[in-house]
């Protein structure tokens, strides 16, 4: 008779402990991925900014030179 009460209670407790363990494990992985993504995003933003400036600077100079030649200020 006691087995009918103790068995499900033990199963419930073990299930809760396992769930808690898995949640903590996944939480650590999510934190690691989040940090990695943040670092990568920062790196990509810096590279994009440098590339954009490198691309637009000659174009801006060329437009300025054309405007001076045409007489537009």
Explain the overall architecture.
- The protein is mainly α and 73 residues long.
- It is built from one helix and no strands.
- The chain has one helix at residues 3-70.
- It is rod-shaped and about 100 Å long.
- The model has no long low-confidence stretch (mean pLDDT 93).
Topology diagram in text:
Layout lengths: L2 H68 L3
Summarize it.
The chain has one helix at residues 3-70. It is rod-shaped.
* Beta-strand residue fraction: under 5%
Name the helicity range: over 70%
In DSSP terms, counting alpha (H) and pi (I) runs of 4 or more, how many helices? 1
**Main β sheet profile:** none
Q: What number is the mean pLDDT? A: 93
Q: What would you call the shape?
A: rod-shaped
What would you call the structural class? mainly alpha
Unreliable stretches covering 5 or more consecutive residues:
none
Instruction: Give the SSE string.
Output: H
- Give me the Rg, rounded: 31 Å
Oligomer: single chain
How many beta strands in the DSSP annotation? 0
What is the end-to-end distance? 96 Å
